[in-house]
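ok new one. same drill as before - structure tokens go in, u give me an amino acid for every spot. 187 of them this time. try not to just spam alanines like last time pls lmao
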């Protein structure tokens, strides 16, 4: 049980204030809270499966520099696209290509690649050598932390106009992209 609680604690703490938590707030301000939390939970389960199971191998195949650089550029593009959409119909049309569930799930998944919570799961798994407890703990920790973001997004939805919300989402994307690129330059 030590591996489970260690993973849960460290991943939960690592996610507080993270870019993916900000994304979760932004998505919840646009979509139903249960949909967002469900999509985040599925993405989290998958990313933590990869993190715990293949962490050491992935680190050797693709450097953290390239993961962060590509993720950063993608998020800056998402932010610019968000600002270019002129009305809510455009936003709904873009989301309907994959549907809101898959849009949230894929966005969260790709944002987590190379993130500090992914690295925390790598480190804990390599130390503890217990796949399932580390996977379960890191998954519950990440979902739990993002549940707080879902609550925040639900309340923001009531206070922000569609235009302000669109700008806020674009800022989160661009900030997340810049942060990922900055992280890439540190490695």
């Amino acid at each position: 049980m030590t591996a489970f609680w260690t993973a849960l604690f460290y991943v939960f703490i690592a996610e507080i204030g993270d870019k993916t938590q900000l994304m979760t707030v932004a998505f919840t301000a646009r979509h139903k809270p249960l949909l967002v939390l469900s999509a985040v939970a599925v993405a989290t389960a998958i990313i933590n499966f990869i993190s715990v199971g293949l962490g050491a191998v992935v680190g050797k195949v693709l450097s953290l520099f390239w993961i962060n650089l590509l993720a950063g550029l993608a998020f800056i593009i998402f932010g610019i696209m968000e600002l270019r959409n002129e009305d809510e119909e455009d936003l709904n049309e873009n989301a309907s290509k994959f549907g809101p569930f898959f849009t949230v799930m894929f966005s969260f998944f790709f944002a987590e690649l190379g993130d500090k919570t992914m690295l925390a799961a790598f480190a804990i798994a390599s130390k503890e050598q217990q796949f399932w407890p580390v996977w379960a703990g890191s998954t519950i920790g990440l979902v739990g932390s993002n549940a707080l973001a879902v609550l925040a997004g639900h309340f923001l939805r009531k206070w922000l106009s569609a235009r302000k919300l669109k700008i806020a989402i674009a800022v989160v994307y661009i900030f997340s992209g810049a942060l990922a690129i900055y992280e890439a330059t540190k490695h």
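The longest helix spans residues 33-61. and btw Residues 2-185 form one domain.
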